[in-house]
Every structure is written in structure tokens, then in C-alpha cells.
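SUBJECT: protein chain
CONTENTS: sequence, C-alpha cells:
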Amino acid sequence: MRVLFLGDIVAKSGRTVVLRELPSLKRALKLDFVIANAENAAHGFGITEKICRELFGIGVDVITGGNHSWDKSEIIPYIAQEKRLLRPLNFPAGTPGRGMGVYVDGSGRKIKVINIMARLFMELLDDPFSALEKELPLGTPKSAGFEAIIIDVHGEATSEKMALGHVADGHASLVVGTHTHVPTADAHLLVGGTAFQADAGMCGDYDSVIGMQKDGSIANFYRKLPRVRLSPADGEATLCGTFFETDSSTGLASRVEPVRIGGRLKSHIPTL
């Protein structure tokens, strides 16, 4: 199975590059399933039903979230009923939506997607380690009937993301980080066969401060006055993500590579 995970889609520039590149990427990489983190897709803060439908319409199968999932309050009734839109699993009980979903691809294969939020330098949600362990099979993904299990770890600290990766090693197909908007160079297979990348990066304009216009972001570091309201950068964006393939006998990963297309970063497209 071939899967693409797209890092944080930031504002209009990020949506534009995904809308432009994803259809051809699906053909070139013969993708079976696509996941995208899109909690920053609506002008940099939150997501709307319209944007969700737009992404689903071009081939995104599941959308994950994070600390900005609720920035657009209009999303609350939609996330309560749309199973393809996730928010972190470890939000308190009673939070609208769900942090895990089971989906079926065009060939009838079951894929489990888990969205978790880390706690270091983040809002202190329920324990992500305990929440994640409850959703992992005792053995490989295939032993539990899944072709793949994919985990989006939304967090600041690479140490916490790596620790969660090792907890899931041998039980999940991919553990990939989101939130920092910077792609890391550590895409590799863990010893138990789980693919890992600490952060997939963002789909957005890299002539920015993590997707926001430079002047306002820099001013906020200089001054202790009321913060300048940030606006998203709107230049040419880079599509960033993580591509992996699974071993059909186990559901663990047989290969993992970063994906980068367009914009200011050096492009990298896996070859089949």
C-alpha cells in the first residue's frame, strides 16, 4: 500500500499548492490513501467545512487537526458528524468529533488513522502516551486486520514525538509529526518496522515565519507590547509531506521518504 501524509496546510498559498499538485502526485506515486493535516488551512488559523469539502474533492481521504482545530467555531457541528475530519484523540471526554477513525480504501482494505497531540510546550491535554497505547494493536497492524495504521503526532518537541514513535514501533505503519511547520531530515524505519519522521513540514510559503508574514512575526519577538495580529504569507508555496509503503504481510513500513514540491525548498519526489 502506498500512502502520502501532507504536513500542515497553511492558508491560501498552502491550499493552492495542494490543489495544484496532489492530483498528479496521486497518479505518479500510485497512491492508495492520502491524509493531510489542515488545522491552519483557513487563513492560517482553523479550518472550515468549505475547505474540508475542497480537500476531499481532490483526493484527500482524511484530515487531521491539532491545537488550532477549533479556531473557526463554525467547524464544531461539522466535525461532530464528519468522520473523515479528526481532532486530537487526547482532548477531554465530551469534546466534539473523534481522534481516531477506521477507513476503507478503493480495494476494500482497512486503514486506521490516529490523531494525537503532544504536551511539551503545548496545551496540557490528557496523557498522549496512555491514549495512544489504548488504540494500538498488540501485534502488527495486519494482525489486527488493518492494512495500515497511521499516527499524526501534533507537537512542538521532537523528543516527545520520537518517544511516541518508539511506543508505536512494531504496532503502527507510520508515526509522523506535525505542528512545527519545518520538515525534518530524519525519515527512517524504526527497528520494529514503523516508519517515522519527526515533522512532515508545512504546505505553505517558506518565505515567512512558519507560514506567517515576516514583519509582524519579527515584531512580536522584539516587543512586549500587545502582539501584532499575524497574517499568513501569500507567496509561492512548497508542498511538504511524507510518503511510505507498507509490507502487505505485516502492515508495517517497507519504505519511507519525504516529499517536497515547488516553492523555496529543494524538491524531492520519490521514484517508484
